[in-house]
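Posting this for the archive.
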Amino acid sequence: MKHILRMTAVAAALTLGTTAALAEPPAERALRNYELLRSGAKGLHDLSDAERRELAALAQLMREGKSVDRRTPRQRCVDEEVAREGKKPSELAMRVIDLKCRER
């Protein structure tokens, strides 16, 4: 149970982001910032609070040897809905899934 709560907290931290940066998934932004920090192109002082939280969550996942889910929230929704179908969804089912996941 404790592990599930920790993973939920890490996932929540990775999904935090500013409205202006919604086009880039938080995991992608964290990976980009990680590379910029490693190369010296950016310093920690250059990152916003949200970016530092995303980077901390990424570091936690890396320490635990877990991979980072680079899918957008919409793509995660589509993947979950398709899996819930249990078989290849029909065209109509895919349209419903698209509508359901559109706002994510």
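The chain has two domains: 2-63, 71-104. DSSP finds five helices and no strands in the chain.
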